[in-house]
Design goal:
The protein has 288 residues and is of the alpha+beta class. The protein is 18% helix and 38% strand. A hairpin with a 3-residue loop joins strand 2 and strand 3.
Length: 288
Amino acid sequence: MRELMGKRILGCVWAVIVALGISVAHAGITVTFDELSDYTETIPGKGSYYNGKDPAQTSDYTRDASWTSQGVKFNLSYSRATFFGSTYEFWNGWAYSNVNDTTTAGFTNQYAAFTGTDHSGTGNKNYAVAFPESVIDLPENYAAQSIYVTNTTYAALYIRDGDAGGFDPPGPYLDDDYFDVVFTGYAGPSATSAVTGEVKFRLAQGPNPINTWELVDLTALNQFGLARSIAVTFDSSDVGSFGINTPMYVAIDSFSLAAVPEPSTGVLTALGACALLLRRRRTERAVP
């Protein structure tokens, strides 16, 4: 009887192992943005970008233009406002782009990666561009693994050559100046609830902005629990009266997420069966 019970328990253990194997069978995700094709503007010879602007609007407005790629949500808002007779338009969050301009300095070139291409190097595929208040909402049961990052042309030329537009200081970065992008994980959506981890990556040290796509390990975002969302912020030595002077942009591509298995029905059933068998065996041992 005990031998039969032992075989049943062993079979139960194998059932749990098989069920666990089934529960992790679904694949991860790599977000490349290449399926996106709705653009705000196409610049002849330089590519296209999307920043959330509604071309049909002629009066002041603010709109939520958040978008998704392969199940991952990227926040975006666009506003048009009039102050003292002048009209201003601005966006916050995430744009996507394939603009290839690596030489034009200044605000008019805020959507271009300094590499001139996306991570694949083909030159006509998309990547994403983050501006302050950028948040990524992850699909359920997926964990951030890695991401490729590089500078935008706007930020890189400011760092390397300085800014003629009057920011203080107007010159290029000094050797001890730095510019970092910071990824912070949160347990809730839209950068809410507890912080689960942080990853910082240096985009420039001195007047030398990176000009290649660099791989950043994001697994530390899950150090204190699974990150449900990721906020992107910046840190720099170039700080003035109104905060960081350096244009706060970063380009990203090939964002990889790993599947996190949920206990399947098979796992729960097998565990319940094992518990009953173990309880029965203990009861039999207790009987004289």
